Predict the 3D structure of the following.
Amino acid sequence: MPPTSLGLVPGPLRLHLRRGRFTFDSATAIRATPGTEPAALLLRTLLAPATGLPLPLADDGRVVLALDPDLTGLGTQGYGLTVSEDAVLLRAARPEGLLHGVQTLRQLLPPAALSAGPVHGTPWSVPCLETTDVPRFAWRGAMLDVARHFQPVSFLRRFTDLLALHKLNVLHLHLTDDQGWRMPVRAYPRLTEVGGLPHGGAYTRRELTDLVAYAADRGVTVVPEIEMPGHVRAALAAYPHLGNFPDRRLEVWDRHGVCDTVLGVHDDALDFCRTVLGEVMEVFPSEYIHVGGDECPTDEWHSSPTALRRVADEGLAGPEALRGWLMERVGTFLTEHGRRPLGWTDHGDDLPESFTVMAWRDQEHGLAAARTGHPVIMAPHRSTYLDYPQSTHPQEPPGQPGFSVDLPTVYATDPAPAHWDAKESAQVLGTQAQLWTEYVPTAAHAEYLVFPRLCALADTAWSGGNDWDGFRTRLDHHRTRLDTLGVPSRPSTLHHPERNSR
Ligand code: ACM
């Protein structure tokens, strides 16, 4: 096992400590060899506020960044870091790997290096070491629901920074739901005029475009989600004709749960899906586009003459088949535009073949999807839904009612469980945390719920999740970093380490 004394989270695959330290001082420069400039700039951007060091780029710099496509053992996201007393060498096969290596270098410095303002009197040194670090899973993410409660883009940037610190590389933005629509769409301005009203507001296109770039600079891809054909009440409040009963007037929903108003399956509704996704693709360059798909009651389709005509015209078995029919068309549209459709699976067998699926209910649904050849992202609610409270302690701040998800459970949930065979496991792209925000009105509450459980998910997704004791030790050290960043910490009275230890 790599040493825990450095408190790296996520833990590295292999790390050997050496004698001595390398000191960053006012003379330290970065040598950015071709292609490594973004990582060099990130290193400077991250270290400058606290250290005040200039860290210029210079050909004779002693902090050397290098890209070498022949380092195939590092994959697309791994990196190698060698620190000696007189030089630092960070290498990777791809730029993403360098960005993760920068975060390691940042964590190796004293926690004060994460301060927002200048810190004086701290020697900015890192221990000499050799590490080769490669993630176990390619998809390591977090979903943030900005539909139920809107969060300003300043919080999204901070959240992105926190993901990057933990080498998480996907920010999945849940932009639309029954309770709100947060992304402006030029062709349908009322979506945000009407759908953005309750619980907050909406982003501008510029804010989202800038967020995508900000995240990319940190190795994080923003994956947008536009829900359909269920969870669309905010859109139907704005454009009633997109529903199944065009004369009906609806309000944006102010309750929680599953709403039985769903999208129509007529041509206007299909045009709407395609037009919205067209604009989404203009703003978000991500390979994957999430189109929801979960929790779609079919009651309205059973009583809508237009929907029943669609069933007959398409030769479908019944109104229940309309969800798959619509998702198929939406998936094809995305594929034709060079993207990959992504959706929530309710049962493991309910999305078209072209879809990558997020298994949100139980692990077994992920297994069912893997067996039929879907690439799978594991998001089982009992271990990755961080909107549930962290414990059953009576003083635990509230979250989604129902049950609690504690730190050891998050840590112990293997995205590709040991009882899956090699072929099934190979379908698993990775895992992500979910923060639904029905019960999360403020940024502080969001951060309270997310941490430290996100650290556990990041550790398991990156380095395997089989080092609970080591993780606990590393996390104790890592908490000083989170404190420095102002992340709210759990009161010690709420800790139940004995009960939780495995
Ligand atoms: C979900 O929680 N309905 C994806």
Q: What stands out?
A: The CA atoms of residues 375 and 427 lie 5 Å apart. The longest helix spans residues 267-283.
